[in-house]
Design a protein that fits this description.
With 603 residues, the chain is α+β, with helices and mostly antiparallel strands. Helices cover 29% and strands 24% of the residues.
Length: 603
C-alpha cells in the first residue's frame, strides 16, 4: 500500500534494496545523529520504521543538518543507495540501504528534550505523563499503542463474524449501584440535578435485549471514581461489552471463549494459549485451592486444608487456633527440602511481613519429617499430611494459620511466592479459566448489613424460591469471571429479567420497592412488556492489551492515562473553573479547609 503524499514518496520503514538507484523523499523525526567529520548520519523515524540518511560535507544540506536537534521534524530528498558491505544493519528492515541526501528541509526544530526518545532509560512517571506526547514516540510504548489498535480491530471483526451488532449507548445517564463511585455531571437546565457517567452500559444493553436486538456489543468507555492500581486505571477504562438473548451461562461461554482465544492466539507471538473450553472453577474452590478468585493457572501449586493433621496435636500454636475456629492451609514446595536454611528463614520473614507469626514448615525424606515443627507430628500425622497434599520425599510443606478470609489471602500469596521463588511459573503461556457460582450476597463486616456481592442485576440460582426460602448468604448467582494468568478480564452474568425476582433481590439488599422503581424504573418498565432471558459479560480491553504486550502496569497500554491520583498531568485536569461557570450550573463550593503545608489541587 502506497502512503506517498506531497511531503514524502515513501515511509521510513518502506525502502529496500530493490529501491536502490531511485529517488525518494522521506519525512519524520530525527531519531539519532552521528557526525563522522565529512559525513553526517541521520536516523530518520516515523511510525513505520527508521531509515538511515547520509548528508555529505560540502553540500547545502550539511550545515542545516549539523544544527539539528534530536526529535526535530525534517523532510529529506535524495537517492536510495545500497550500503557498503559490512555496513548493513540486520536489526532494521531498511538496514541494507540508506538515502544519500541532496536536499533537507526543517519543518519543526525541537527544543531540548525533557526525556530521551531514542533510549529505554527509565524516567519518573510524572515526567513521562507530563510529556506523554514524547513518551509515546518511544519504541516500546509506541508499539503498545499500535498493538492496542490492532487488538480492538480484531475483536470487532470477530464479534461481527459471531453475529453481534455494534451499538453506542449514552454517556450521560443516571447513577447505578455498580460497586464504585460515580462521576457526576451537573445539569445547567435542571438545577440541583446531576447526570452520571456510566460505570458500565449495564442497563442500556439489557434494554437493547428487551428491544429485540438479540446480540449486542460495543467497545465501551466506562467511568468509575476509584483508586488506581497496576491493573486498573483511575477514572476511565474500556471494555468489550456484549449481551445475548435467549441464552444460558453455557451459551455465553461457548460464544465468547473462541473470540478471546482467537484474539490471544493472533497476537501471542509464539506464546501458548489454552484452547476452549476453558477450565471452570467454582468461587469457593478458587479461594480454598488458590487463595484467590482470580487464580494464575501457570502456577502448578495448589493449597490444601490440613487442619485435621494438627487438630489435637502437640503443636499448640495450631491446635489451639483450630479450636478457636482458625484454619490451617498448606502449600507444597516441590524438591524444596534441598534449599539452604536461608531460603526458609527469608520465607519466615516474609510471613511476618504478612502480619502472620511466620510460615511454618517441614521437610520430607523417607516418610519422615524434619524442621521446627516436625517433632509435633508423629508417623501417622506425617503420613496423613503426605496423603492430603501429595507431597513426597525431597519436598517441603509450608503452613499458614488464621481465620478466613485472612488465611485464604495469605495462603494465596504464599502459593504465588513459592511459585516464583522456585521457578515454577510457566513462561510464554496464557492460561484461561472461568470462575463460576459467585455468592449473590455478602455481609458488610463494618455494618453487618447484607449487600450485593457482584452485579445486582444477576439471576439468582434457584430463582425466586431461593430468595424466599434460603439464607441469602448461601444463595449463588449465575455470575462468572473470565481470568487469564491471574488477571480478571471480565465479570459477567445471566441477568435477572423478571420484576418480581428483582424486587425481592433488592429487598434483601436493603432497597425498598419504591427505591428500585425510582432508580431502575426504565428497565423495570421494559421488563413488564416481555423480556427475554439474557446474559453477557465485558472483558477489559486495557487488561487484554496489557497481557499481550507483556506489561505489568496498565498505564503502559493507554495513550493518555491519568496518574494514580486521577490527574491528567498533560492536560492539567482536573482544574478549577471560573465562578461564573459555577453560578451558571447553580453550584456553590464547600471546600474542606486546607493546611498551610497542603499541596495544591492543581496537577
Amino acid at each position: 500500500m502506497s502512503l506517498s503524499t506531497g511531503h514524502r514518496t515513501h515511509t521510513c520503514g518502506e525502502l529496500r534494496v530493490t529501491h536502490a538507484g531511485t529517488p525518494a523523499r522521506l519525512a519524520g523525526w530525527v531519531h539519532r545523529k552521528r557526525d563522522h567529520g565529512n559525513l553526517l548520519f541521520i536516523d530518520l523515524r516515523d511510525t513505520y520504521g527508521v531509515t538511515q540518511c547520509v548528508v555529505a560535507g560540502g553540500t547545502p544540506a550539511f550545515a542545516t543538518a549539523e544544527s539539528l536537534r534530536l526529535e526535530s521534524v525534517i523532510m529529506v530528498g535524495g537517492e536510495v543507495v545500497r550500503r557498503t558491505p559490512g555496513a548493513e544493519n540486520p536489526k532494521l528492515p531498511t538496514g541494507e540501504i540508506e538515502v544519500a541526501v541532496s536536499d533537507l528541509t526543517v519543518e519543526s526544530m525541537a527544543d531540548t528534550l525533557p526525556l530521551q526518545v531514542n533510549s529505554d532509560t527509565e524516567f519518573p512517571e510524572e515526567t513521562r505523563l507530563r510529556y506523554r506526547f514524547l513518551d509515546l514516540r518511544r519504541e516500546r510504548l509506541h508499539r503498545n499503542i499500535v498493538l492496542r489498535s490492532r487488538v480492538i480491530a480484531s475483536i470487532r471483526r470477530r464479534m461481527i463474524d459471531a453475529g453481534f451488532t455494534e451499538f453506542q449507548t449514552p454517556i450521560l445517564t443516571s447513577s447505578s449501584p455498580e460497586g464504585a463511585r460515580d462521576y457526576l455531571v451537573p445539569s445547567r437546565v435542571h438545577p440541583g440535578q446531576f447526570y452520571a457517567l456510566p460505570q458500565a452500559p449495564q442497563q442500556f444493553k439489557q434494554l437493547l435485549m428487551t428491544a429485540g436486538f438479540d446480540r449486542y456489543f460495543q467497545i465501551a468507555p466506562c467511568f468509575r471514581d476509584e483508586d488506581g492500581r497496576a491493573d486498573r486505571s483511575p477514572g476511565e477504562f474500556y471494555q468489550l461489552d456484549f449481551e445475548m438473548s435467549f441464552v444460558t451461562q453455557e451459551d455465553v461461554f461457548a460464544t465468547i471463549a473462541p473470540v478471546l482465544h482467537g484474539v490471544f492466539e493472533e497476537f501471542a507471538d509464539g506464546r501458548a494459549v489454552s484452547p476452549p473450553p476453558f477450565p471452570r472453577i467454582t468461587y469457593d474452590e478458587a479461594l480454598v485451592r488458590y487463595g484467590s478468585d482470580k487464580p494464575d493457572l501457570r502456577n502448578p501449586l495448589v493449597i490444601h486444608d490440613v487442619g485435621e493433621v494438627f487438630r489435637g496435636s502437640g503443636f499448640s500454636a495450631f491446635a489451639q487456633a483450630l479450636e478457636r475456629g482458625d484454619v490451617v492451609r498448606a502449600v507444597v514446595g516441590p524438591k524444596a527440602a534441598a534449599q539452604p536454611r536461608s531460603f526458609f528463614d527469608k520465607l519466615n520473614e516474609w510471613g511476618r511481613a504478612q502480619e502472620m507469626p511466620g510460615v511454618g514448615y517441614v521437610t520430607l525424606a523417607d516418610g519422615a519429617a524434619k524442621g521446627p515443627i516436625a517433632k509435633f507430628l508423629d508417623e501417622t500425622r506425617v503420613a496423613r499430611l503426605m496423603t492430603i497434599t501429595g507431597a513426597a520425599g525431597g519436598d517441603a510443606v509450608f503452613f499458614v494459620c488464621a481465620k478466613r478470609p485472612t488465611v485464604d489471602t495469605v495462603a494465596g500469596r504464599l502459593r504465588t511466592k513459592l511459585g516464583e521463588d522456585l521457578g515454577l511459573i510457566e513462561a510464554s503461556t496464557f492460561r484461561f479459566c472461568w470462575i463460576v457460582d459467585f455468592p449473590m450476597y455478602e455481609r458488610d463486616e463494618e455494618t453487618g448489613t447484607i449487600g450485593f456481592s457482584h452485579n445486582p442485576f444477576s439471576m439468582p440460582q434457584g430463582g425466586l424460591d431461593a430468595l424466599e426460602t434460603r439464607d441469602p448468604l448461601t444463595v449463588k448467582a449465575y455470575q462468572y469471571d473470565i481470568v487469564c494468568n491471574g488477571v480478571e478480564l471480565s465479570s459477567g452474568a445471566i441477568r435477572n429479567h423478571r420484576p418480581d425476582i428483582m424486587f425481592k433481590a433488592f429487598e434483601i439488599a436493603g432497597y425498598r420497592r419504591e427505591d428500585v422503581e425510582a432508580r431502575f424504573g426504565g428497565m423495570l418498565n421494559a421488563f413488564r412488556f416481555g423480556a427475554p432471558p439474557h446474559g453477557g459479560s465485558a472483558p477489559g480491553i486495557d487488561r487484554i492489551v496489557m497481557l499481550l504486550a507483556g506489561e505489568t502496569n496498565i498505564r503502559e497500554v493507554i495513550a493518555f492515562p491519568m496518574n494514580q491520583q486521577a490527574q491528567d498531568l498533560l492536560m492539567q485536569a482536573p482544574s478549577e473553573v471560573p465562578p461564573e461557570r459555577l453560578r451558571e450550573l447553580h453550584i456553590r463550593l464547600a471546600l474542606p479547609e486546607r493546611r498551610a503545608d497542603a499541596p495544591s489541587r492543581q496537577p
